[in-house]
Structure formats: structure tokens, C-alpha cells
Amino acid sequence: MSETKAPESPVASNFIHNIIDKDLETQKYGNKVYTRFPPEPNGYLHIGHAKSICLNFTTAEKYNGFCNLRYDDTNPVKEDVEYVDSIEEDVKWLGFMWTKRLFASDYFGTMFDCAVKLIEKGKAYVCQLTPEEMKEYRGTLTEPGKESPYRNRPAAESLKLFNEMKEGLHPEGAMVLRAKIDMASPNINMRDPILYRIAHQSHHNTGDDWCIYPMYDYAHPIEDAIEGITHSICTLEFEDHRPLYDWVLQELEWPNPPQQIEFARLNLTNTVMSKRYLKALVDNGDVEGWDDPRMPTIAGLRRRGYTPEAIRDFCDRIGVSKANSTVDISLLEHCIREDLKEKVQSRNVVENPIKVIITNYPEDQTEEMEIENNKEVPEMGSRMVPFSRELYVDGEDFQEFPEKKYFRLFPGNEVRFKGAYFITCNEAVKNPDGSIKELLCTYDPETRSGGGFEGRKVKGTIHWVDAKTAVEITIRAYNHLMVKNEEGENIMNPDSLNTIKAFAEPAILDAQPGERFQFFRHGYYIADAKLTAGTDKVFNRIVDLKSSYKPNQL
Ligand code: ATP
Ligand code: MG
Question: Which of 13, 203, 194 lies closest to 108 in space, CA to CA?
């Protein structure tokens, strides 16, 4: 894909650290480095937020500094305690601990006092233009705006009205507090932006204490300054807001004010990264909830089986830059494969099972075959897997009329059954409808794996499950959440979830909710934390084994 971009090196460069290095050299903030992660509690965090979390917390760690978790809860309408709790869980799960946990709404009093100061200085005024008029007065990118007729009202009058706004004497939309900056500024954000608005709304933290609420652009610099933040890292869309950030702190005469630094937000192919869109999927019932394993939320990725290590590795690899780009989701998938490769045990599981009968194997015999738990890591030991006359193999491992270079089971071919014997397929028995009923095979007793047999070679090795002891499990095979339709628009993938029944070796009965495995030759799976109970085993496919990630083609 031409729009996609991936990193050149495993740990990409970080221009923000270069800025901090310079600031330390000039002692701009002495030796202090203080960052913050400031989510608005209006939804669950997603992988884009993980990039910001990793950046803020690891930057603080790198410089022996501090990092706050601050809820940017200045908008009462969309915020909720459920979100506050989920954010904390997610940050901790990623492996970070904040210096302080704070709420921007705790500073409403200070913010009010600061607004009074601006009014007294003649730097803010109460404006009674209607929203429509205000829009008209704002001007456009090519035309300057017009000054509000309320702009030069005496400070005392603005103060009186501002207090009345606070006392709840005016309805929503009747008036706002605006900064007095420059209606002709080429930067529209500087054309007397709104600082406070009336909203007769309860707030999840301050209840009904306030009926006026500060705007983000006014509140954020004050929040940072109160906490002694040195480097206020945010995403690129705030670049044009930086002059306002600086204006607020300068007019408030804040000593040693923090500086805002912008970086490019993370975009990923085949998914969507806006809380608003994700909330709509949840509210419409298109997904099971914020933690649906298809969701790019941290909660969804966790339930899907992603590890914090994989997500942090991903964030390291994509690096931090000033240029917007879209990262291919295959890089994220590569990171989880890399992380699980040497961590999890393997199990034999067959999908779309086909019955195999070994006609020359004794009817009442069962052998225990020793199979290694992870072939990359011998220290992970082995387990015993029962083998007997009737087995299941994977639907993909048999072709009646084999295509070219197909080395697995077909009539007349011999393959190795992994960890067991060489088996020859002699005949495919069919059902009346023409489907395969069972395969009649024979084994060669001389070829027992681990029994010193090093004789002839076969081209195919396949896995199997003993029919008598097979455990039926449910697999939830996930595909990408979003795909492009014929018009090139992003739509929710109608094929994002396939539920499959499969047979597993008996050891799967011990799988605990949240436990991860490699299903041999298929992929990595996790026992779903919500749906796995007792003998009911439901596995989420974390990622398949095939990689479309090609490091050399970056
Ligand atoms: P959304 O648009 O998904 O609602 P947001 O920016 O409104 O996201 P906030 O809760 O305000 O969400 O974000 C908290 C922090 O996370 C901010 O500093 C924001 O810049 C950062 N952030 C949000 N999305 C991304 C992203 N895709 N990549 C990097 N950082 C992000
Ligand atoms: Mg936001």
C-alpha cells in the first residue's frame, strides 16, 4: 500500500528527546522533566493512546522525571466514571505507574480565578453575540474577522456578567467569555477564542457545583502549569493552537511556563482510531462492547490476547515523528508473534476435522506420544499426547486430487504424523452426498518418532488429534475490523468474526481463562477471559502464523 509507512529501524528516532536534551543543556527547567498523559474520559483508550502513553511515561523514565495521569474532564456532557476506571486499568496493564493521578476538574476554581484576572487585565470579555453571529464575525481563512460589539465593554461589566454566568442566572448560549486577542489574526484560533461557556450540566466529578465550563484551549495550559509540567506532548492537530496555549500562560504571567510539543498521531490500516466512531460501534451493537476482541481499544487488544510487551514493542518501532502517516497493521501483528514465539506452549488442534482410521493399528491400543511444548525452547519440556486407531486431521491437510506441490494427505501418499508415525492414505470413503466420511490409512510401526528411526524421508508433516479423547472447543477467528468497499470507503468488515468448532488434544482441558497457546501450524490463541469456564473452552485467535509483514520491503 503506497500510503503506508513503517520504520527503518527497530527503535526509531525521537525528536522530542532531542528537544529535551537541549532544554537540559540550557537548564530551561533546571534538571526537571515532567510529562503527563491527559485523556478525556469519554471512551475507552485505543492503541493510538498507547502511543501517547508510552511516549509520555518512557520519556519521564528516561530522564528520571515524572509523569502524571490527568483526566482532562472539562466537558461534562460526554464523560463517565466507567471510562475513568477503564483508563486506569489500561495504563497499569501497559506497565506504567503515574506520579500523581489528577482531575482537571479539580482546578475549576483556579481556572475561574485566572479568568477573572484576564478580565481585570482587559484581556477577556463577556460576549453576547448569538452562536450564529459569532460564526459570521469570525471571518474565514482568507478574510479577517470582525470585532464583537461587546469587545470593548468595561471590565467591570464583564466581571459582573461572568459572575452571573457562574451563579446560573443565564441560560446556555446566552453569553460566553472570550479572550481579547486579534480578530485579524491569520490563525483563526487567535480570533478572540471562547474561554468559558454556560452548560447547565452535572459533572461526574464536581456534580452541580458549576454551570460554566472552561474550553479545552484555555484549560489545558493552566492544567499543565499548575502541575509543573515541563513538556506538554500532544498530537499534531493542536499545532495551530500552540500560540493560544502560550498566550494564556503569558497573560497569566505564569513563571517558567510549560511548552507544548506536537507529534503525529498513530493511524493504522484496517481499523479505526476515533473514540467517537468506536463508541458508535458499541452503541449500535455492531461489536460486543468496548472490549470486543476486534476493537483497537487496549481492552479489546487485551481480550484478544495481545500482551503489553507486544504493544510497547510496537510503539518503540513506530517511533515519534512530525509527519502524519499510516502504519500497516501487519507490524502490530508481527510484534505479538515475536513476543509469543518463545513464551507459549503448543497444542494440537484441528479445524474442519476429517476422521482418519489406521486400519492396521490395534483396535484397543492407545500410545502416549511425547510432543515438545515449544520447539524453539527445549526447556519448556514436553507433554504426552494420546494416539490410537482413530484420529482427526485438519480439513486443510487432505486433498482428494492434490494440487501441485501439495505434500500432505492424498490417496497413495505417505506423510509424518507429527510426533507419531509415518502414515499412508489408502482410500477416501465418502458420504452419500459426496463429502469425505473418513480416510482409511495404514501406519508403519517401524517409524515411531523418537524411537531411533531415522530412515526414509517424507515431504509432509501434519498434526492430529486422537478421536476418543478429543475435546471440542470453540474458536473465534477474527479478521480485520475495517475493510474498504468497492467505492474505496472504509466500512466495518462483514466477515470480521467467524466462529468455528474444532477438536483439541485432551491437555486443552487444563487451559485457564486468559492462557495463551500456539495451535500447531495455525496461529496464536487465547482462552477468552469471559467465555471460558469449566469444560467450555472458547479461544480467540490472536494472530495466525502466516506473516504479511516484510521487513525488507519497508
Ligand atoms: P479520539 O479522537 O480518539 O477521541 P482524543 O485525542 O480525543 O482521541 P484524548 O482522550 O483527548 O483523545 O487523548 C489523550 C491523549 O492521547 C492526547 O494527548 C492525544 O493527543 C493522544 N492521542 C489520541 N489519539 C492518538 C493517536 N491516534 N495517536 C497518538 N496519540 C493519540
Ligand atoms: Mg479529545
Answer: 203
Please work out whether the CB of residue 39 comes within 6 Å of at least one atom of ligand 1: yes
In this chain, the answer to whether the domains covering 15-108+217-333 and 346-466 adopt an identical fold is: no
**Residue numbers annotated as active site:** 40, 265, 275
Confirm or reject: Cβ of 258 under 6 Å from ligand 1. Answer: no
For 225, 247, 257, 495, the CA distances from 253, given in Å and listed in that order, are: 11, 10, 9, 57
Q: Are strands 349-351 and 497-504 parallel, antiparallel or unpaired?
A: antiparallel
Helices (runs of H) and strands (runs of E) counted in the chain: 12, 30
Amino acid identity at 358: I
Which residue's alpha carbon is at the smallest distance from atom 26 of ligand 1? 48
Provide the pLDDT confidence category of residue 316 given band limits of 50, 70 and 90.
very high
Q: Which of 52, 70, 75, 268 to mutate to test the pocket of ligand 1 (most atoms within 8 A of CB)?
A: 52
Question: Strand runs (DSSP E) across 82-165, as ranges?
Answer: 101-103, 124-127
Name the β-bridge partners of 233. 261
Quick one: cell of 104?
A: 482537571
**241 in contact with ligand 1, CB cutoff 6 A:** no
- What is the identity of the amino acid at 552? N
| Angstrom distance (rounded) from CA 456 to CA 486 | 51
Looking up cell 484555555 gives: 218
Q: Which CATH superfamily is domain 118-214 in?
A: Glutamyl-tRNA Synthetase; Domain 3 (3.90.800.10)
In degrees to the nearest 10, what's the CA dihedral of 212, 215, 219, 220?
Answer: 150
pLDDT digits (tens, 9 = 90+) for 66-99: 999 999 999 987 777 889 999 999 999 999 999 9
Beta bridge partners of 440: 357, 427
Cβ–Cβ < 8 Å for 273, 54: no
Ranges of each domain in the chain: 15-108+217-333, 118-214, 346-466
Ranges of H-type helices in 202-241: 216-227
CATH number of 346-466: 2.40.240.10
> Would you say how long the chain is, in residues?
554
CB of 537 closer than 8 Å to CB of 504: yes
Ligand nearest to the CA of 36: 1
Q: Is 266 in the pocket of ligand 1 (CB under 6 A)?
A: yes
Residue 456 has a pLDDT of 77
What sign results for the dihedral spanned by CA atoms 248, 251, 252, 255? positive
**What is the Cα Rg of the chain in Å?**
31
Domain 15-108+217-333 listed as CATH 3.30.930.10: no
DSSP 188: G
| pLDDT at residue 445 tops 60 | yes
What interhelical angle do 308-318 and 329-340 show, nearest 10? 130
Residue 235 Cβ inside 6 Å of ligand 1? The answer reads: yes
The per-residue pLDDT for range 489-531, each reduced to its tens digit, is 999 999 999 999 999 999 999 999 999 999 999 999 999 999 9
Residues with CB under 5 A from ligand 2 (ion): 40
